[in-house]
Amino acid sequence: MLEFLVFIGVLINVWGTSFLILWGITGNLEIAIIFAILSDFFAAIPTVVKAWKYPETETVLAYSAAAVSVITSLFVIKNWTFSEYAFPLYLITINISLVLIIYKKNFARWSIFNMG
């Protein structure tokens, strides 16, 4: 199943790259951003699955630092248009999601209230 998701991610990356070319032709930046987000989302699926199944193999620090880094980029946005904030907001969402997945799974395993 994971291999299938990676394959889909590769297809989306190729697809996203083709939309960069389309952006160059049409000048519609929003299309390129949407497909860049989709491309990264599908590429992140194996990481999310691995973090869910084996949270001890992931480090919270990396995803926390990435989220903080992207959050700081929001402070320099002058024009709040889709093309300015969409990808940073996606990156914040995926990184915070990974932090929460790792913490939730580790907390459940380490909790003194865990009876199983």
Could you explain how this protein is built, in words?
With 116 residues, the protein is mostly helical. It has one domain. The protein contains 4 helices and no strands. Helix 3 runs antiparallel to helix 4 (82-110). The longest helix is centred in the C-terminal third of the chain and has 29 residues, at 82-110. It is flat, with a radius of gyration of 17 Å. The mean pLDDT is 82.
Which residue ranges are poorly predicted, with pLDDT under 50 across at least 5 consecutive positions? none
User: Outline, from the CA principal axes?
Assistant: flat
Q: Kindly state the number of beta strands.
A: 0
> How would you spell out the order of helices and strands?
HHHH
Number of helices: 4
| Fraction of helical residues | over 70%
Q: How does the major sheet shape up?
A: none
Task: Tell me the distance between the termini.
Answer: 28 Å
Domain count, please report it.
1
Alpha-beta classification: mainly alpha
Radius of gyration equals 17 Å
Strand fraction: under 5%
Q: What is the average of the pLDDT values?
A: 82
Key terms:
mainly alpha; 0% strand; single chain; 116 residues; flat
How does the SSE layout of this entry go?
Elements: H1 2-26, H2 29-53, H3 60-73, H4 82-110
Helix pairs in contact: 1-2, 2-4, 3-4
